[in-house]
Amino acid sequence: MNEKKKKRIKELEEMIEIVLLSIPREIASQKYYQKALEKASSDTTIKFFKTFVEEEKKHEANLKKILKDLQTELKQLKKSK
Amino acid sequence: MKKSDFQQFNGKDGKPAYIAYKGHIYNVSKSKHWKNGAHMNSHMAGEDLTDAFYDAPHGVEVLERLEKVGILEDETEYSPADERKEALRDLYRKFHPHPMLIHFPIGSLFLGAVLQFLCLITRNSSLENAAFYAFVFGTLFEFPAVISGIISWWLNYDLTLTSIFKNKLIFSIILLLISCFIVIIRFCIADISFQINIFSLIYNIAIFSSIIVLVILGYHSGKITWH
Q1: Between residues 14 and 43 of chain A, which touch chain B (CB distance below 8 Å)?
Q2: Mean pLDDT of all residues in chain B?
Q3: A51 and chain B: CB distance < 8 Å anywhere?
Q4: Interchain CB contact of B185 with A (< 8 Å)
Q5: Residue B226, pLDDT score
Q6: Which of A19, B101, B176, B204 could link B145 by a cystine bridge, Cβ 3.0 to 4.6 Å?
Q7: Which residues lie below 8 Å from residue B51, measured CB to CB, with a gap of 6+?
Q8: What pLDDT score was predicted for residue B93?
Q9: What SS3 class is residue A40?
Q10: Cα separation of B76 and B82, whole Å?
Q11: Are B54 and A18 a contacting pair at CB < 8 A?
């Protein structure tokens, strides 16, 4: 395995770890804001927390997509000679 | 419908236009927002738009007006098994058993090592007995702590083996072996702490090395929480 490939594998593994550890945080934030949303009474607060929940959902979806892409690239790189 | 078949319904060349959301397929052929299989120049028919809905200016209620034409067969992301996993994940998030259980072995093993250290200085047998029982308690609680940790790893990270989890697994096994060794040896040789021989030396090294392993484990757990 050449040095360039080794370096890329290491980079991908580090990126996967970062993204992987970030996903449950986004989900936890979503649930947290969702709880606040259920307890909110004023329209402004409801709107505020709704935006937060949606934002966290977007982050989760984007991170999952990135993770999938990184894992695919790593798999392909490890398979290639 | 298989994903490969579904992708053919792209709304072009007279073909119907289908989109998918969470495993369900919807027909958008008659929608004025989906001319020639394209929506707002950013989404195409024949695509799974589950993730795209999070960025959409409208909610999923727009799907209610569409005809549901089938299920995406190779859509595994929202299978009943995944839904069960999600329910378990919620339960775990509510009761967080791993962070709760992990403190029992940490506290007990650390206390055991401190008591053993005091026993070596004072030669007091009560301290030695207390150290032994702290190690028994700590060792017993290691098992639920490790099991809950593995379940947490499965629920939150799909058992993905990155360097942090690899290290956590290795050092958990080392800690289990060390603490079982300590308990078994002390159980078999009751006065081992008061002997002066190689077994006593190994026994004490094992006790104090368990603290080093605990610190390493704590460092990696901290990386998960505070990275």
Answers
A1: 16-18, 20-21, 23-24, 28, 31
A2: 89
A3: no
A4: no
A5: 79
A6: B101
A7: A61, A62, A64, A65
A8: 83
A9: coil
A10: 8
A11: no
**Rounded distance between C-alpha atoms, residue A60 and residue B224, angstroms:** 17
Question: Confidence band (pLDDT; 50, 70, 90) for B78?
Answer: low
Number of Cα atoms under 13 Å in the Cβ half of residue B211? 14
Q: How far is CA B178 from CA B90, B109, B143, B213, in A?
A: 34, 11, 13, 9
Q: Among B51, B156, B162, select the one facing A24 at the smallest CB separation.
A: B156
| CB-based contact, A50 to chain B, within 8 Å | no
CB contact under 8 A, A16 and B156: no
* pLDDT at res. B77: 54
Q: Are strands B24-27 and B43-44 parallel, antiparallel or unpaired?
A: unpaired
Look at A61 and B51 and tell me if their CB atoms are within 8 Å: yes
